[in-house]
Design a protein that fits this description.
Strands 8, 9, 10, 11, 12 and 13 form a 6-stranded antiparallel beta sheet that branches. The mean pLDDT is 86. Strand 4, helix 19 and strand 5 form a beta-alpha-beta unit. Helix content is 59%, strand content 13%. The two termini are 62 Å apart. It contains 27 helices and 13 strands. The chain is of the alpha+beta class. It is found in: Membrane.
Length: 711
């Protein structure tokens, strides 16, 4: 059944390409189509990732080939030459180029390219294909190219008899097969249509000879083999200038074939509920098209309809595809005369059915699925293809889709989160006085976390937002703008210009720009674009934490000294143990440690067996990541505790702690804590309460920062 359908479709496509003034070449054209079906069908059947696949020349590319053949035929005939060798060369060359591209894409594993093609563009291509199939069906049935100028001829009584039955059949097939789905329905209706044609012919008293004279049959054809279409010596008559003039259409054929095979493969995945290796399909079809091009065949690839039909019929092996190819090959040996009596209205009706299917899917069904802007793009591409040609339609679709994408993407806010310095802090512990200062003056720091790909649309939005903040004095003037690039994928050249303008605005308003977590490529772009330009108003830091620390230090440096005294360990302990006597008793369980700068207190992964109280100096906790990278967790100063979590939980150290400058510590070992619990339980209880309050305070600060970042 698949072989019969493929052979019928091959004849139909050949009739589409070799119509009008090229009808005399139709026998050879049928041979080319059948040869392509046989070669491509066999090779793809053996190499495809889907075993029951059917591959053959398809209507998408045949429509463009018909346009090319018609143009070449008109030009060369006008010059008194024979256009057929050039048309054969175009068919073979398009198959060779397409096969080569398929092999390259499959070898580079670029089958997923189809995921990046916007549906409106694909829909516009399919709609244009449907329209050209529809108009091509009229040309097949009447023998005259469909155009506004030919309308008077098409409306003559003798022409209406030729195309109205085919149009009626095509519309009937479209309506019936959209409602009912059975793999035998289409073949059965085609057989019935052929029988109906001859039944009406004989009932009206007509004869086959009269039908041939009226152009209602494909023939008469000369006897003889259908292949090869021409002798090697005829290659000398190929007009390469005409082929060069149609290079754009050849490119359109290749691109359309690439899009179609990937879309057909994706559709077959959905229809069969099986995964298909797109790269393998490209490689197998590439080899098949190279062989078809060398054998004077046409471009072909996976057929969604016949392959789905095989699946519904229960085919599971490669025999179906191989047998289909063998049927097409066998048809080559019977000569063209066997097809002479095939009714043109039936072939025309089949083309109407194919074209109407594309038009209904893209113009009717899409009306209910697509946004109006995207639907409008489908219609625009259809109009351009119908009015000018396939290649301009492709170009318009790509350009308009790119503009729509840019407009829609620019609506996405480049600013993922916004905060001020009083809401988000660095991982540096500050004294009570410094904390109070940062709380009061934190709004001098404006923090923006950026996201996505920054281009001209989104960068202008960012520029306006920051400029508005710079001009605002409520409730405090902005002195620092921190831009975090951790979630930025990249920027384009127009965005660089926006950042240069942003730097100039910052300089004029006395604002310092702080950029953190810049990808190296983004930083290089900014520096090449003159963003930094040696300005002291631009600062770069490896991460958000260090950028926040620098801004906090600058805010504290510019603020009046705090009236609160600096934090001291003794003062903290007195607030815990109430009296100096209890503090002295507690210190008896501690070991004093004096460490130089850069001294490692403990390492990530060590056994937790003690904790440390900081009397003076500064410590930093680092998280060691894969690849030798580190991340600062917290910087701690006098009056705080480090290492308490591991000791209390009995786990290994979660981070590495190192001194930043000479530091004095008091070490409380696990043994000393247990001894204090036995000997002075009131001291142990007070110390446990102190640690609990410290942990609760850290939790509150961390929760506040998280709410600011994630809300």
């Amino acid at each position: 059944m698949s072989g019969t359908l493929v052979a019928t479709f091959s004849i139909t496509l050949a009739a589409l390409i070799f119509s009008g003034n090229l009808t005399k070449y139709l026998p050879a054209g049928i041979g080319m189509a059948l040869a392509g079906s046989a070669i491509i069908g066999a090779i793809v059947a053996l190499g495809s990732s889907y075993r029951a696949v059917i591959a053959a020349p398809q209507e998408n590319t045949a429509v463009v080939l018909a346009l090319v053949a018609s143009g070449i035929g008109s030009h060369i005939t006008a010059k008194g030459g024979d256009p057929f060798p050039t048309i054969v060369a175009v068919c073979s060359l398009s198959a060779l180029v397409t096969g080569g591209l398929f092999l390259v894409l499959g070898g580079l594993r670029l089958g997923t390219l189809v995921r990046f093609i916007p549906y409106p563009v694909v829909g516009g291509f399919l709609a244009g294909t449907g329209w050209l199939l529809f108009t091509g069906s009229i040309s097949v049935m009447v023998g005259t190219e469909f155009s506004l100028a030919s309308l008077p001829l098409l409306l003559r009584a003798d022409a209406i008899v030729n195309w109205v039955p085919g149009l009626t059949l095509g519309l009937f097939l479209t309506i019936l097969l959209r409602r009912y789905h059975h793999f035998l329905l289409l073949p059965g209706l085609l057989v019935f249509a052929v029988a109906m044609f001859y039944g009406v012919l004989y009932a009206a008293g007509g004869t086959v000879a009269e039908a041939l004279d009226r152009g209602m049959l494909l023939g008469p054809f000369p006897s003889g083999a259908l292949w090869p279409p021409m002798a090697p010596s005829e290659a000398l008559r190929i007009d390469w200038a005409e082929i060069g003039a149609n290079a754009g259409n050849l490119f359109a054929i290749t691109m359309l074939a690439t899009i179609s095979i990937l879309l057909n493969a994706s559709g077959l995945e959905i229809a069969t509920e099986r995964e298909i290796d797109l790269d393998r399909e490209l490689r197998a079809t590439g080899i098949a098209n190279l062989a078809a091009g060398l054998g004077f065949g046409m471009v072909g690839y996976l057929s969604l309809s016949e392959s789905t039909l095989n699946h519904k019929a229960g085919a599971e092996s490669r025999i179906a595809g191989i047998l289909s190819a063998c049927i097409c090959a066998a048809a080559l040996f019977f000569g063209a005369s066997v097809f002479s009596y095939f009714p043109k209205p039936v072939l025309g009706g089949l083309l109407v059915f194919l074209g109407a299917g594309f038009l209904l899917e893209t113009l009717y069904d899409s009306w209910f699925r697509l946004p109006r802007v995207e639907y409008g793009l489908v219609v625009i591409i259809l109009v351009v293809i119908a009015w000018i040609g396939f290649l301009p339609g492709i170009g318009v679709g790509i350009v308009v889709s790119s503009v729509l994408f840019a407009v829609n993407y620019s609506r996405i806010d480049v600013i993922k989160r916004a905060a001020v310095g009083s809401d988000v802090r660095s991982n540096v512990e500050r004294s009570a006085g410094d904390e109070l200062t940062l709380e009061e003056r934190g709004r001098e720091l404006y923090i923006l976390q950026l996201q996505g790909y920054i281009f001209f649309g989104t960068s202008y939005t960012l520029l306006k937002r920051v400029h508005h903040r710079m001009l605002s004095e409520d409730p405090a003037p902005t002195r620092y703008v921190l831009l975090d690039f951790r979630h930025v994928d990249g920027i384009d050249s127009s965005a660089v210009l926006s950042f240069v303008r942003l730097r100039k605005l910052a300089v004029s308003n006395g604002v310092t720009l702080v950029l953190t977590d810049l990808p190296s490529a983004v930083r290089n772009q900014l520096e090449r674009g003159g963003f930094a330009d040696g300005s002291r108003r631009v600062r770069f830091f490896p991460d958000l934490d260090h950028g926040l620390e620098w801004c906090e230090n600058e805010v504290l440096r510019a603020a009046p000294p705090s009236m609160l005294p600096p934090t001291k360990l003794v003062d903290e302990l007195e607030s815990v143990f109430r009296t100096r006597e209890f503090v002295s008793g507690f210190l008896e369980y501690l070991e004093r440690v004096e460490a130089p700068a850069g001294y490692q207190i403990y390492r990530q992964g060590d056994v937790s067996k003690d904790l440390y109280l900081i009397e003076s100096g500064e410590l930093t906790a680092w998280l060691e990541l894969d690849g030798g990278k580190t991340k600062r967790l917290r910087t701690m100063g006098p009056g705080t505790v480090v290492g308490e979590s591991g000791l209390y939980l009995g786990t290994r150290r979660s981070a590495t702690v190192v001194t930043l400058r000479p530091t004095v510590l008091y070490r409380l070992s696990l043994g000393a804590l247990e001894r204090m619990t036995r000997e002075a339980p009131h001291l142990a209880a007070s110390f446990h309460q102190f640690v609990a309050c410290l942990l609760a305070e850290r939790m509150v600060l961390a929760t506040g920062a998280s709410k600011t970042l994630f809300n």
